[in-house]
Amino acid sequence: MDWIGITVAALRASVGPVAVAYALAGLGLNLQFGYAGLWNYGHVVAVAAGAYGAAIPLEAGATLMVGVLCGVAAALVVSLFLGVAALRLRLDYLAIATIAFGEIFRQVVRSNWAEPVTGGVFGIQQFARDFFDLNPISEGRYGWGDFSFDHRSLWLMIVGWTLIVIGVLAMYMLVHSPWGRTVRAIREDEQVARSLGKNVFFVRLQSFMIGSVFGAFAGVLLAFANNVNPDFYSLILTFWVYTALLIGGIGRVLGPVVGAVVFWFLFQWFDGFMQSSIAEGWYGNLLQTTDAGPFRFMLLGLILVLLVVLRPQGFFGDKDEALLDAS
Amino acid sequence: MTSEQQVAQPASATQPVSEIQPLLEAHDLVAGYVPGVDILNDCAFKLLQGEIVGIVGPNGAGKSTLLKAMFGLVDIRKGSVSFQGSDITGMSPHQLVRRGVGYVPQRDNTFLPLTVQENMWMGSWVKKKVDKELINKERKQAIFELFPKLRERWEQRVFQMSGGERQMVAMARALIAGPEVVLLDEPSAGLSPRNQAAVFDNIVSVNKAGVSVVIVEQNARACLQICNRGYVLDQGRNVFEGSGASILDDEKIGRLYLGSLTGNVRL
């Protein structure tokens, strides 16, 4: 078995464009779920709105800046709509409503009816030329041995990691501001916060929309990396971001970034390991190479369960906050 | 020293209640939670500047609902509430806090994972600008004078503190915004007798510092001892109103609404 090859491939995935997008989406979800306590299981809507919001005008010939701004604006509009409709619900109902909204959004963009605008089931391709035209890196592969990236991936990573640095700094300032303290306080006790004169609904809506902006940037980046395909934005994306967030630790600014890196390392490593071990016949006739995919989900699930039981605060999470409900 | 001796002299001590402009007043209030079921039925209430007024009565009498209705936490179906002479009926809590009304909810009324200091900031950030400076100076000093224990616990998270200390934090936090009046919903609930006495002593100190106080209490006798006036509610209606002492001395009221003990009980 090529242990080094598997590990290097996993390392490559852990810092690659998709992991970067997950880290950005996780930063937003951490504000909504970790700090504001909003059970948003429809975070994929913000990511998809960002992707479609950018891809549609870019394909129609808009400039890159207009496209990106449209992506963010689309996520803001969608989250405003969802927030006004759903944030008055009790938290468990909010979870149900956001799950439903996530599916509705995907079904609408992939429908025949929407095809002239969204491309329906085919999605939208070849719209990111302006973004890659700005790439200062000349064509080729860069890195050490197998740990190397082509010029397109590298450009996506440079932009993405820059966005993460800006996002982490912005998030740090946000959650350490009086506004951030209000957000945490509302999570702890809505009634008490209200008694202190906090406009609970408005603050929740703000945190929901700001979280969606991070999701939108993740969506734009994913769209540049992989084009836009409606079935990519299914419910599972939200839960992967949640898993990454739980690994890194909720309620900590760096949690989602570390979580996304670790998540993609584990995900890719298990995939490589299962592929190789099945190919080498470790399990006889019990498993085929096509079984490797489902297996990595099972192993990730196991890790998630162990993590929640043994270290619920994640790598960087705040134990006092994570366990507070039990105290 | 008993709390009775410490009570400040409010406006009502020198003039009849009916002649003075009330600080907080409610007229003919009808309010409830479930459509069609009224908890308050034409309830009236008046608080004068500098007073401590208690609202007592049996379980389900509507005491907490009256407080919540005046603070905008329960929808008012009929009647009106005024504060400093202007109508505040139906205003939301965040508007009332800015006008100078503070409210301390019943039990579980602090943010447990936050430190004492952060809890105080939560109470202070009610206006457009951050009142951090203010906390660091005058009000912080005033809070420490009222609650010396909070000085040593300033950086501690609230979930590490006892019930009595948490109540202290909640009260201090309502005061840090500089309110004219604080509405206290069962401040002694769930506390040991020693802590209950401390809470009532604290309320008297707060009042002496110039803040008018409304208290809703199950612990009626202890509460009425520190009150200038009191209201007895039953089934959402006023059934008796008078000075704290007169309610305590009324044998019938005592028997019907305050339990079987007679006479004043020292704190």
Descriptive key words:
heterodimer; A: 327 residues; two-stranded antiparallel ribbon; 15 helices; B: 267 residues; alpha/beta; six-stranded mixed β-sheet; four-stranded antiparallel β-sheet; 11 helices; disordered N terminus; disordered C terminus
Description:
The complex is a heterodimer of chains A (327) and B (267). Chain A has helices spanning 3-15, 17-35, 43-59, 64-86, 91-109, 115-118, 129-133, 151-175, 178-188, 190-195, 200-226, 235-248, 255-279, 292-310, 319-322, and strands at 141-144, 147-150. Chain A has 327 residues and is mainly alpha-helical. Chain A has one domain (3-322). The longest helix of chain A is centred in the middle third of the chain and has 27 residues, at 200-226. Chain A is globular and about 65 Å long. Chain B is of the alpha/beta class. Chain B has helices at residues 3-6, 63-70, 93-99, 116-124, 132-146, 149-152, 163-175, 193-208, 220-226, 244-249, 251-257; strands spanning 24-31, 40-47, 52-56, 76-83, 86-87, 101-104, 181-185, 212-216, 229-234, 237-243. In chain B, strands 6-7-8-3-9-10 form a six-stranded mixed beta sheet, with helices on both faces. A four-stranded antiparallel beta sheet of chain B has the order 2-1-4-5. The A-B interface holds A 178, 181-182, 184-185, 188-189, 191-199, 318, 320-321, 324, 327 and B 71, 73, 92-98, 103-105, 108-114, 118, 121-123, 125-126, 130, 157, 159, 170, 173-174, 177.
